[in-house]
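Dear colleague,

Thank you for sharing your sequence with our group. We've completed the structure prediction you requested, and as agreed, I am returning the results in plain text so they can be pasted directly into your records. Please verify that the sequence below matches your submission; if there's any discrepancy, let me know and we will rerun it promptly.
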Amino acid sequence: MIHLVLYQPDIPQNLGAVLRLAACMGAQVHVIEPCGFPLSDQRLKRAGMDYIDHVALTRHPTWEDFLAHRTAHPGRLLLLETDGTTRYTDIAYRPSDYIVLGSESAGTPRALYAQMDATLTIPMKPGLRSLNIAISAAILTAETCRQLDWAFA
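Please find the predicted C-alpha cells below.
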C-alpha cells in the first residue's frame, strides 16, 4: 500500500490521527524529523490510541535519510500542497507511491518541490487557507484505496 510521508510534523494529534488512518487503511507512515514535539509525546499516543501498534512507522532523521531509504524502496514522490498543479483525483495511484505532506505551520520547503514527480492539490472553496493534514491524508488515502480496489497490503 501507499506511503504517507509527514515532513517535520508540528502537531502530535495530527500525527496520531494519521497513524490511526494508516493502521485502518494499510498505509505505511514515514516521519521526517525533526518533529515539533517528542515522538513519544502522550498526546500522540492518545490520538493514535491502540492503533499505533498496527502501523508500519519509519522515522528518518533527515530528508536525505528518507531519500536514501527510497533508493532501496522506489516509488513516485507525490507532494500534496495547496498550490499543487494536479487535482488529487486526476492521477492514477500506484501501491509504491509516497505521498508527501508538509508541516502544519510551514508547509513544504520550496527546495523539495523540484524532487517531486507531481504536486497534487485538493480543490477547495476560494478564500480558505488549507485543510488539516490528517484530513488531507485521509482524502488521498481513500482515493488511493478506491483506485487500487481496496487492496489492503
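Summary note from our side: The helical segments are 12-25, 42-48, 63-72, 110-113, 133-147.

Kind regards,
the structure core
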